[in-house]
Amino acid sequence: MSRLIRALIDTGALRHNLATIRARAGGARILAVVKANAYGHGLVQTALALAQADGFAVARLEEGITLREHGVSQPIVLLEGVFTAEQLREAARHELELVVHDALQVHLLEADAAGHRFRLWLKIDTGMNRLGFRPEQFPEALRRLKRLSAPPLEVRLMTHLARADDSPEMTRRQLECFSETIRGHACATSIANSAGVLGGMPVGGEWVRPGLALYGASPFADCAAEDLDLRPAMTLATSVIAVRFVPRGETVGYGGAWRAKRDSRIAIAAVGYGDGLPRGLLNGTPVLIGGRRAPLCGRVSMDMIAVDVTELGQVEVDTPVVLWGAGLPVEEVARCAGTIAYELLCGVSQRVPLELR
Ligand SMILES: Cc1ncc(COP(=O)(O)O)c(C=O)c1O
After folding, report:
1. Domain CATH code at residue 239
2. Catalytic residue among 39, 254, 273, 342
3. Which of 31, 79, 198 has most ligand 1 atoms within 8 Å of its beta carbon, as the pocket-test mutant?
4. How many whole angstroms from 151 Cα to the centroid of ligand 1?
5. Measured distance CA(292)–CA(272) in Å, rounded
6. Are residues 155 and 251 in the same domain?
7. Among 93, 243, 267, 321, which has the minimal tally of Cβ within 10 Å of its Cβ?
8. How far apart are CA 203 and CA 196, in angstroms?
């Protein structure tokens, strides 16, 4: 038995997707979003592969520090900022940039006796209702930042789009709210995520913040990644570890969730929810067996799945299996689990080795 579960990371695809995004970004600079272990692709290796990015964005302080410790020298933005004086010091020590989305964070900066200086990204909530100052709170927040005893290196303004993938109307309202709120302030801005960059509506801003598209998945339900000139960066691959005959009428796996309607050949592949494959995947979810599609049958177990290969002919122990990636879009598999590509990619578990190509 040669190759069991692994995630093959195509660094050429990462670079290609960055170039695709750059071509669509209207001259904006690119903060590559590499939070959550670069959406499962490996934080450090992804950032190193994306050396042409103008900066990186992460969610947590530890992610930023890890990037610095591995020699990443581009700007790194902490999308949630910091929450304690200790974190503030650490962020300064590693020259990280801070999103400021709450009065508590303004207060931390005001109370910083050591006078650390940062590039700050003041976040305005234009309708997402998650993080950010409401428009009426913005002028006061900006005034306080500009009056810090250790003045910021720069203040940039940002917001986040809630429905750039499916509601031009909502996006239009958010853009109007943002431009009205910041009117008269000559600061660089950042608005667009992947859907904001690749959607039909020009969103503007000097910086864009794509995540999902870098990894080669489409943010839109009605438009395939291929049609956006994006290539899948992760292929989740394993092998067949057994092939068995299941007579008509018998069931396969826990709960007997699949019953053979005919005499069937069933391939067992070494991947399960212990690797991050959702247990909720439906019977019939496509799996590539030796490069050809075959339907999942029965429940996903912790370490194994069963696939009906009756129609495929030659399938044996060691035949390669692909769960998603090249030849099988992760978005399609996500739909079969009632979720989104983001969750599948981020959910690849720690026991799955990442192999760079
Ligand atoms: C603030 C912020 N900007 C950008 C992104 C990237 O979004 P996407 O992966 O949809 O491009 C995210 C992702 O959740 C985010 O939270």
Report:
1. 2.40.37.10
2. 254
3. 79
4. 28
5. 20
6. no
7. 93
8. 6
| Alpha-carbon gap, residue 61 to 82, rounded angstroms | 7
Mutate to test the pocket of ligand 1, among 21, 209, 220, 340 (most ligand atoms within 8 A of CB): 209
| Domain assignment of residue 164, yes or no | yes
Cβ–Cβ under 8 Å, residues 337 and 287: no
DSSP symbol at 24: H
Whether the CB-CB separation of 289 and 328 falls below 8 Å is answered with no
Identified catalytic residue from 35, 123, 273, 342: 35
How many structural domains comprise the chain? 2
**Do residues 100 and 155 share a domain?**
yes
**What CATH number should be reported for the domain holding residue 195?**
3.20.20.10
Distances (CA, A) of 28 to 197, 203, 206, 209: 10, 11, 5, 10
Residue 226 in domain: no
Amino acid at the residue 37: N
pLDDT tens series, the chain, 357 aa: 557 999 999 999 999 999 999 999 999 999 999 999 999 999 999 999 999 999 999 999 999 999 999 999 999 999 999 999 999 999 999 999 999 999 999 999 999 999 999 999 999 999 999 999 999 999 999 999 999 999 999 999 999 999 999 999 999 999 999 999 999 999 999 999 999 999 989 999 999 999 999 999 999 999 999 999 999 999 999 999 999 999 999 999 999 999 999 999 999 999 999 999 999 999 999 999 999 999 999 999 999 999 999 999 899 999 999 999 999 999 999 999 999 999 999 999 999 999 998
In a domain, 143, yes or no: yes
Same domain, 21 and 161: yes
Sequence-ordered list of residues with C-beta below 8 angstroms from that of 7, at least 6 positions apart, any chain:
40, 41, 234, 235, 236, 237, 348, 352, 353, 354, 355
Residue 123 bears catalytic tag? no
Residues 136 and 163 occupy one common structural domain: yes
**99 with 151, same domain?**
yes
What is the pTM assigned to this prediction?
0.97
99 and 20 co-located in one domain = yes
The domain in which residue 271 lies consists of 234-356
Atom 8 in ligand 1: which residue has the minimum CA distance? 211
Where does ligand 1 bind, in terms of residues with CB under 6 Å? 33, 79, 160, 193-194, 209-213, 219
Q: Are residues 131 and 243 in the same domain?
A: no
How far does residue 351's CA lie from ligand 1's centre (Å)?
Answer: 26
